[in-house]
Amino acid sequence: MADQFGGLTGANRDAYAALTNMLKTYGLESLAGTVLSFIQQGYSQDTVTVLLQNTDAYKQRFAANEVRRQKGLPVLSPSEYLSVEQSYRQIMSSAGLPVGYYDQTSDFQNLIANDVSPSEVQQRVTVAGELVNSIDPGVRAQWNQWYTNGDIVAYALDPTRARPVLERQYRAAEAGAFGKAQGLSLTVGQAEQVAATGASESELRQGMATASALASSGAKLSGIYGGTYTQQDALSETFMGDATATEKRRKLASQERAAFAGGSGVTEKSLSRQVSGQR
């Protein structure tokens, strides 16, 4: 079995154990081999601690410190740096941020580099939460069904990164809410598909009214003439200009006109025969 201490004994072994345990708390276990090499070269524990700070891995782990130094801000000790990260992480977790937003140490670098305190981050999160409560009740209800407040918090913390996602989700929530008001029941997939068209709020409202009318008449005619015009067809025709959906609807309309025309013709012929027989 390989010796995890690389053959070190006594004080050197203790120094190696202490240093590697410290690196583990930093998430820098990969530097264990470097520590072993330094100690084998005869460096003391204190010297190895200093030498580690010059490695690329260490600099990357505490990258915000270099930016702080350039800005004239005090450099944080590893314990201070980790403490701030932990505070950020607790705030993000409580806010329910979506996966991929502020759940890695690299996500905190910009905040630390710009000396954004945990209390300021908490304030941003609070403001973002209040923003959710200020939107249209119907849209908010739809938002709560499909998404989380964490999505808006992500926007408050990093507008550039989160804006595309948030805008799509907000428009989708509007589409779902406006559709519901017109008697439609959109899935999140359908709502996001509509949102992707770039329709404005007014266009969504008007479009949902149109789609509702098309879906209603399409379902009725499909039931009579055996068609397959669905709510999805109505949405696709209204918002995406789907030619196939339009053709399905027109075919049903043609069948209806033909049925009425045929019915009227039979009635007229019957009436003609009745009149002739009476003469």
Concise structural overview:
The protein is mainly α. It has helices spanning 10-26, 32-40, 45-52, 56-61, 63-71, 78-95, 109-113, 118-134, 137-146, 149-157, 159-181, 188-195, 201-225, 231-240, 243-278. Helix 11 packs across helix 12 (188-195).
Overview of this protein structure:
The protein is mainly α. It folds into three domains: 1-61, no CATH class; 75-136 and 146-157, no CATH class; 160-251, no CATH class. Helix content is 75%, strand content 0%. Helix 13 (201-225) packs across helix 15 (243-278). Residues 265-279 have low confidence and may be disordered.
Question: What are the SSEs and their pairings?
Answer:
Layout: H1 10-26, H2 32-40, H3 45-52, H4 56-61, H5 63-71, H6 78-95, H7 109-113, H8 118-134, H9 137-146, H10 149-157, H11 159-181, H12 188-195, H13 201-225, H14 231-240, H15 243-278
Helix pairs in contact: 1-2, 2-3, 6-8, 8-10, 9-11, 10-11, 11-12, 11-13, 13-14, 13-15, 14-15
